[in-house]
Amino acid sequence: MLVVTRKIGERIFIGDKVVVTVVKIGNGGVRIGVEAPPEMAIVREELAEQLRQAEELAIDTARRGAGH
Fold this sequence. Notes:
Layout: E1 11-14, E2 18-26, E3 29-35, H1 45-66
Antiparallel strand pairs: 1-2, 2-3
């Protein structure tokens, strides 16, 4: 993991297609902006976990339905 110190307005480039910008710092958190190609999904960790659980539920439901 790369750990860097950035100030408001400073950016980090990931490859040549993704840019992360520090937008605001304060109140125990940091607000960042992410620029990436539209075909690249950008999802917060907690939403990714919800999506994974929903997919697992859908697969389990489909399997149970196919077994009957």
